[in-house]
UniProtKB/TrEMBL annotation:
EC number: 4.2.3.-
InterPro entries: Isoprenoid_synthase_dom_sf, MIB_synthase, Terpene_cyclase-like_2
Catalytic activity: (E)-2-methylgeranyl diphosphate + H2O = 2-methylisoborneol + diphosphate
Cross-referenced Pfam families: Terpene_syn_C_2 (PF19086)
Region spans: Disordered: 1-72
Family stated for the protein in its record: Belongs to the terpene synthase family. 2-methylisoborneol synthase subfamily.
This protein's UniProt keywords: Lyase, Magnesium, Metal-binding
Name of the protein: Terpene synthase
Cofactor or coenzyme needed: Mg(2+)
């Protein structure tokens, strides 16, 4: 089976030459005492297992471009599920008893093990699991159906963001801020998840994550502003919002969860940023498509790509949904082509592994949506 980030063998990837910064990185450091610093001297990542031929729970969306993934290791799934529930209940008091079924139905363990098959240990998987649960607590409690509202969202998000990007203030006010981090479930979850994360992440990896979370929060605010005013954006504007309000913080930490680091100068390369953005955008449209019927059944009007296409392009619900599938597929094809071009232009082992990790996350995200029949069902369009 081809690697997840590589195009089909019969399709030639776009040819690109390394940029000047990439060429400098490929040459490596020079000068006295730099012999041990070459980035290429890194152990090869483990080869991912082949996908299982056993039938997968749930139905994939017809026509949606995706790759099958191996069934997640059931032992790891069970252990992550046990640990994340203990953390949510005992460490951060995340939810009341009446939400327990919904927490279990989210299937965090299966999600994280499918998305990070190269994680060295369950402890590494827990880094991603805590952050995923914390992000969903913020979304549910601040934005969505567990008390969320667009009114006043900016203030709530700002204070929650200080749980991952700490406030540096005077001694007089530092204690009041520290106490505020325990005042509601989302902030408790953010604070705790980030404390665990920074113990394993490098400073640049932690700062990268904070940056992506700021992007996420900005996307939340744009969506909330449109909801408050009843505005339905143009399709391109909706896609711009979804580039920020999306899953990007999750695949961008694939190296931390994998127990290695993609150096900051490689992560910041425009070509790498484009690959990460395209992958994040594709995964988010997957969410729009699988959650379509769930959102239609919820109170109020929820913006998602099919709804926006139907409204702005004046077509029926079914045609709008099918066009949204095409948008996803275009994003996926661009993601894979750009990843293949970057892999050819910058053949460093940690770059190859990071690109593979992002692609595996994209595939694992689809697997989780397809198989999570507790949360999602498909519309009757076929």
């Amino acid at each position: 089976m081809k690697e997840p980030w590589m195009p089909d063998p019969e399709i030639s990837p776009p040819q690109s030459s390394p940029s000047a910064p990439v060429e400098r990185i490929l040459r490596g450091p020079s000068g006295l005492g730099t012999t041990s610093l070459y980035l290429t001297r890194r152990e090869e990542p483990p080869t991912p297992p082949e996908p299982s031929t056993a039938p997968v729970e749930g139905n994939a969306i017809p026509g949606l471009y995706h790759h099958p993934v191996p069934e997640p290791d059931p032992v790891r799934v069970e252990e992550v599920s046990r640990r994340i529930k203990a953390w949510a209940l005992d460490e951060v008091d995340l939810y009341p008893q009446e939400w327990e079924e919904q927490f279990d139905g989210f299937s965090v363990g299966r999600y994280m093990v499918a998305c990070h098959p190269d994680a060295p240990t369950v402890d590494h998987l827990m880094l991603a699991a805590r952050l995923m649960v914390a992000e969903n607590a913020v979304d549910d409690c601040y934005c969505e159906d567990h008390g969320g509202s667009p009114i006043g969202l900016g203030g709530r998000l700002l204070l929650a963001h200080t749980a991952i990007d700490p406030l540096h203030t005077t001694k007089e006010y530092q204690q009041q801020w520290a106490e505020s981090l325990h005042s509601d479930a989302p902030r408790r979850a953010y604070r705790s998840a980030m404390e665990y994360f920074v113990q394993s992440a490098s400073p640049s990896q932690a700062d990268r994550f904070r940056h992506d979370m700021a992007r996420l929060h900005m996307g939340y605010l744009a969506e909330a502003a449109w909801a408050q005013s009843g505005h339905v954006p143009e399709v391109w504007a909706y896609l711009a919002m979804r580039q920020f309000n999306n899953f990007r913080p999750c695949p961008t930490i694939t190296d931390t969860v994998g127990g290695y680091e993609l150096p900051a100068d490689l992560h910041a390369q425009p070509a790498m940023q484009r690959v990460i953005a395209l992958g994040g955008n594709a995964t988010t449209i997957v969410n729009d498509l699988y959650s379509y019927t769930k959102e239609l059944a919820s109170p109020g009007r929820h913006l998602n790509l099919p709804v926006v296409i139907a409204e702005r392009e004046g077509i029926g619900e079914r045609d709008a949904y099918l066009k949204a599938i095409e948008v996803h597929n275009d994003l996926m094809h661009d993601f894979e082509a750009e990843a293949a071009a970057l892999a050819a232009a910058c053949p460093l082992p940690n770059v190859q592994r990071f690109l593979r990790g992002v692609a595996v996350w994209v595939d694992g995200n689809h697997y989780w949506h397809q198989t999570n029949t507790y949360r999602y069902s498909l519309p009757d369009f076929w």
